Amino acid sequence: MRALGLDVGTKTVGIALSDELGWTAQGLETLRRNEEDPDDDMQKIAAIAKEHKVGTIVIGLPKNMNGSIGPSGERSQEFAESLKKHYDCEMVMWDERLTTVAAERMLVSADVSRKKRKKVIDKMAAVMILQGYLDRKSM
């Protein structure tokens, strides 16, 4: 069964999908959040999960460097709770410290322009979140 990885931001949600064996994560899309109707975001993600027969959703949990959970982390946890109402599966909160920084560095080293980086950074962060989960799970 596949897993979906989410990098939840205030403006966008980066989405990644695992292969059927659960070995690799690939970027799927970046969803622009609907500020007026957050329920719309949940329905879109649930539709993607249903389409791909997802059994686990891995949501990035931004923690502070000392391991505590701040306002961003609390928003991610609330997002997960809301998503559970739209799609019933295992929800895993995954420590995402520095994933966006690592994704940015990877794109810079690949010589991706600033304009293009902005379009794919959230999707790349979702890939890193999901791949971290998949790697840990296979140990």
From TrEMBL:
Keyword Cell membrane in record: no
Keywords on record: Cytoplasm, Hydrolase, Nuclease, Ribosome biogenesis
Domain YqgF/RNase H-like, residue spans: 1-103
Places the protein is found: Cytoplasm
SMART domains the record matches: YqgFc
Keyword Cytoplasm: yes
Entry EC no(s): 3.1.-.-
Function: Could be a nuclease involved in processing of the 5'-end of pre-16S rRNA.
Family listed: Belongs to the YqgF HJR family.
Protein's UniProt name: Putative pre-16S rRNA nuclease
UniProt lineage: Bacteria, Bacillati, Bacillota, Bacilli, Bacillales
Gene name of the record: ruvX
